[in-house]
Design a protein that fits this description.
The protein is of the alpha/beta class and about 220 residues long. It has helices spanning about 1-5, 25-30, 50-60, 75-85, 100-110, 130-135, 190-195, and strands at about 15, 40, 65, 90-95, 115-120, 140-145, 155, 160, 170-175, 180, 190, 200-205. It has a domain at about 15-145: Alpha-Beta Horseshoe (Leucine-rich repeat, LRR (right-handed beta-alpha superhelix)). The strands form four sheets. Strands 1-2-3-4-5-6 form a six-stranded parallel sheet, with no helix packed on it. Strand 5 (about 115-120), helix 6 and strand 6 form a beta-alpha-beta unit. It starts with a helix and ends in a 14-residue tail after the last strand.
């Protein structure tokens, strides 16, 4: 199982989206030997908590892309752990993490200096002033403080937001240019670490309340 997977030391990308049985204990085993892990998708893994983020901060310090969509047990303490140990992080999605507050942005500002893309959709405990203050550090961000809709369906691979609410508006947006990173083998495009997450120009179906990249929505 996870223990045998973790022994493949050269693994750089793992997608565990919607794995309902994955737990912190499993992630402890999995992360122990994955020193080169670069990309991890834990979206909608409902049992994942701050403990997993602790293991990542200790064992997977080279990670550049982390997706925590719908991980409701994650809080500021977990983001603080990531910020202290995963200093190469470029892309973070905490959409639907309702226990993450403004404090998390302060931790990211202090520890994740290379963070370029941050998604905070349905982050009900993060305020607009805090986002506005942190936004200049980023190349792209998305934020709203709405309650997650029934059947929360944020599809990471397509960069698309679906909702039980009536869709009001269709917009087009351009992702930020790929971020180059230095390494032992020279520079590489950040686009390679996210694959389909950064896909040039993406058509997005969004609600009226959704923030366009790099901007804050006006209050109604």
């Amino acid at each position: 199982g996870l223990e045998s997977l973790g022994k493949h030391l050269k693994i750089k990308e793992i997608i565990l989206s919607e794995c309902k049985q994955i737990t912190d204990t499993g992630m402890k085993i999995l992360s122990a030997d994955l020193k080169k892990l670069d990309y991890l998708d834990l979206s909608f893994c409902r049992h994942i908590s701050n403990s997993t983020l602790k293991y990542l901060s200790l064992n997977c310090r080279k990670i550049t892309c982390l997706i925590l969509v719908g991980c409701f047990k994650v809080s500021d303490a977990g983001i603080q752990l990531i910020a202290s140990g995963c200093n190469f992080l470029h892309y973070l999605d905490i959409s639907g993490c309702r226990n993450v507050t403004d404090k998390a942005l302060k931790y990211l500002a202090k520890g994740c200096l290379q963070l370029r893309i941050l998604k905070m959709l349905y982050c009900v405990a993060i305020t607009r002033p805090a986002v506005s203050n942190y936004a200049p550090r980023l190349q792209k961000y998305e934020y709203n403080d709405d309650e997650p809709p029934l059947g929360f369906g944020y599809v990471v691979s397509g960069d698309e937001l679906t909702s039980a609410k009536k869709l009001k508006k269709r917009r087009y947006s351009t992702m930020a240019p790929p971020v180059s990173m230095g390494g032992s083998s020279g520079e590489k495009d950040y686009e390679q670490t996210k694959h389909s997450l950064v896909d040039g120009i993406t058509e997005q179906v969004v609600e009226e309340s959704l923030i366009s990249p790099g901007s804050l929505a006006e209050d109604p």
